Amino acid sequence: MYNLIYINTHDTGRFISPYGYQVNTPALLKLAKEGTLFTKAFSVSPTCSPSRASMLTSTLPHVNGMLGLAQRGFSLNNPKQHLAAFLSENGYETVLCGIQHEVSWYFDVDKGSLHEIGYQQVLTNSAEGYKKEEYHLWDRKNAETLSAWLRNRKSEQPFMISYGLHSTHRPYPVEVADNIDERYIKPPYFESNAITRKDHAQFLTSAQYADESIKLILDTLEELGLMNNTIILFTTDHGVALPFHKCTLRDAGIGVSMIFRHPTMGHGKVVDQLVSHLDVFPTICEALGLAVPDYVEGKSFLKMLEDEEYRIRDEIYAQVNFHTSYEPIRCVRTERYKYVRYFDTSWDKLNLSNIDEGEPKDYLLARGLRDMAMRKTE
Fold first, then answer.
1. Are 285 and 81 in contact (CB under 8 A)?
2. Does residue 319 belong to any structural domain of this protein?
3. E strand or H helix at 59
4. Residue 86 is part of which domain span?
5. Structural domain contains residue 322
6. CATH number at residue 71
7. Beta strands 230-236 and 258-261, pairing class
8. In this structure, is residue 57 part of a structural domain?
9. pLDDT digits (tens, 9 = 90+) for 217-250
10. What is the pTM (predicted TM-score) of this model?
């Protein structure tokens, strides 16, 4: 049986080098070349807990109960439907190291609640003592802990590991990396000025640190000869924490990076067909030779690893319910069209509370963002 390692970043969208952006993420580029890159992968929600919970149960937020953030009181209706719980029941040693966002606060290492969603072992280090702008150091500490665990492991039991990074969530590292010159970068989707270039340089720094931690895990797998029997999934939860990205149903909000490395197929493939995070669970089931549970709503994309033109869906769906406040929105996206429906017809402005704080938000607030009208159907 294959092992599985699920590597996830926070608020990254598709801003990594395998998608053509000038981001220093060579480990992820190497992983893409060894695996299959999905150019049209989408989350089912552009907010953290609903996105992750939906992918890891293959059910939509209004079905699984995770309508908003776990730390704000939302929870899975049935934690046993979580991928970790499912694999635990099917003979896997399930391990969490770092961020998860499907139960409680993601820095909480309460093993009782994490066991509830299926993790038998919790290797996550305490985040106490780290400044918010230095959580990339906590990511690194977790990578080192996981690397040591892999090196010292004696069991022949197959494993499922979730390695979650805080990066690239705000606040970004204060100091820009030495190899990034903020004068000569172009912020995505924003006017280029000293404020937006600085902010983007800090994002690039966060992404670079994330890649270095991911490299440590991938190098460990390589050194131990585990690449030959381990499936690797890399993805993120939703778009970057910028206005008109995260917490919106624009492609910049729900479009995600996703790389799937299978030991024996799909190496160097690039798939341009639509896939949803809902499709991850049944794909893993097929790859591991396990029967797909009847509650799963996604479809396996495993055949795409051999045939890039193979299609499993003509549309994807996504939704917003809560982030910091209530904002019911739904969308359907096909290859050519997208329909977005806003259900709160009493408010036609942006929901400012659902835009993460940061310099770009402040910059736009000073230039009329608060009064900007939004169409209720796009």
1. no
2. no
3. none
4. 3-308
5. no
6. 3.40.720.10
7. antiparallel
8. yes
9. 999 999 999 999 999 999 999 999 999 999 999 9
10. 0.96
